[in-house]
Amino acid sequence: MRGLFLLLAVWGAIHPMSYFLTWFRANGFDLLAMVDAWHANAASSGLVWDLTIAAIALTVWILIEAYQGKPRLGLLAIPATFGVGVSFGLPLYLFLRSAPGRKA
User: pLDDT (tens digit, 9 = 90+) per residue, 33-64?
Assistant: First the structure.
């Protein structure tokens, strides 16, 4: 499973980022304009909110596990989630969480 989580994390980082970089090349590095583009219609706004809520839920899970004394390496998944997306942060966290010798 660990290898699958790593593969999904790599894919979850590269695939979405390729779209973001394409957008930045065409429009310049303007984060506010990108956020406006995410809300171009009701369908895309729904996806933005779906992923935002998932990112917050993942962050709460990671923080609770870190607070409970589990290895804090999983905290790296928080900036991965908000910097790229849940498609990167979640499989990265599962990869880190499933380290050999680690009890879930």
Answer: 999 999 999 999 999 999 999 999 999 999 99
pTM of this prediction? Answer: 0.88
102 falls within a domain? no
Cα 46–chain centre separation: 17
Compute the distance between CA of residue 73 and CA of residue 50 in angstroms, rounded to an integer: 26
Residue 102 main-chain phi, psi, to 5 deg: -90, 130
Residue 59: inside a domain: yes
Q: Mapping DSSP to helix (H, G, I), strand (E, B) and coil, where does residue 100 land?
A: coil
* Domain range enclosing 12: 2-97
The answer to the question of residue 74 being in a domain is yes
Count of structural domains, the chain: 1
Pull the structure tokens for residue 69: 């004394």
DSSP output for 77-93: HHHHHHHT-HHHHHHHH
The span from the CA of 65 to the CA of 74, in Å, is: 9
Classify residue 104: in a domain, yes or no. no
